[in-house]
Amino acid sequence: MLLLIPGPVTTRPEVKAAMCYDLAPWDRDFASITVDVLERLRDLAGGRPDQHVTLAIGGSGHFIIEAAIRTFVPEGGKLLVPVTGQYGERMMRLAREAGRVVLSLPVGETERVAPEAVAAALAADRSIGHVGLVYSETGTGIVHDVEAIGAVARAAGRRVILDAVSAFGAMPLDLVAQPEIDAALFTANKCLEGMPGLAMAVARIDRLRACEGNAQSWSLDLADMWHNGQVNGCGYARFTPPAQVISALRAALGLYDAEGGRQARLARYQANMRTLRDGIRALGLHPCVPDAIQGPIVFNVLAPHDPRWDLHHFVEALKRRGFLISNFYNTRLPSFRVGCIGAVTPDDMRRAVAAMAEALDEMHIRTRETV
Ligand SMILES: *Cc1c(COP(=O)(O)O)cnc(C)c1O
Predict the structure, then answer these.
(1) What is the best residue among 138, 162, 168 to mutate for testing ligand 1's pocket, by most ligand atoms within 8 Å of CB?
(2) Is the pLDDT of residue 262 over 80?
(3) Whole-structure pTM value
């Protein structure tokens, strides 16, 4: 079965094999593996050893996003969140439940965040300390302009928390060039093609120092994690880490380098997305998002306008043919979502499109017009 979902993704056999050992997380050998992984990820984020550190917690992406909000936005502090889609909304909820004040900035479902709109919102309200931005909005598939939004925040003297969960490893990131970013957040199981269970932040050391005591949580305090690393060594976690997932991530990073690094990975994902897009157009279906802003990570297809359309039937029919896609709607209009990331190639995408044609036939859907 190939997972064509935006995480967890299909992984290579070497990544799975790296997990089948008993590992002692506080053993010195394991600590050096952890340090190696964390340092490589800091470099991948364009971070510098004297300015940035990678912090990892066991858990899913939401855990590290909440940890970053709690750590960098003080209690009662205000966060401006462009509502890019489901993940923008999720960031707002995490912030609200943590007692932070959220101001939302509406964004059209088929639009990128406009830097001018962010600038205007920041100018209108001096009490906004942070912008919370989703790099690749996994709900819509649109990739937002981190450089441009970051530049606006920088010019206005505000900070940025970047949800790069579905972008990291494929989309460019240069944290030294963007000092307004307190932390870039990501997990092992998306574009890095590792396993789920490990969430990470590449964060600014000066900001961690300045934000001690903000978090109102021990387990989700990035400043405390950093402090612990200073005292005990940064390969030693405070609580039991998912050691097998870290080991798998190291194997995944080896494969990442062997593939040719970030640019090669991005090129493969772009080729996957284009193959899928050409294929669904040939079936008479239409993408949700205009080509000019369609990102390479996830692809939403408008559902055929046919009374026989049923997402669950379609998903099950594809599953019987070896492909798993998302089984819930992510957009306002009915659609189906396909992930273009993971250890999959354009050939896999061609086979997936053939399976989609068969699934539609099985459902007797012949009119491929969309709503
Ligand atoms: C996957 C994802 C997350 C985290 O989701 P989890 O299920 O908590 O791992 C956060 N933001 C974006 C943009 C994502 O794609």
Answers:
(1) 138
(2) yes
(3) 0.97
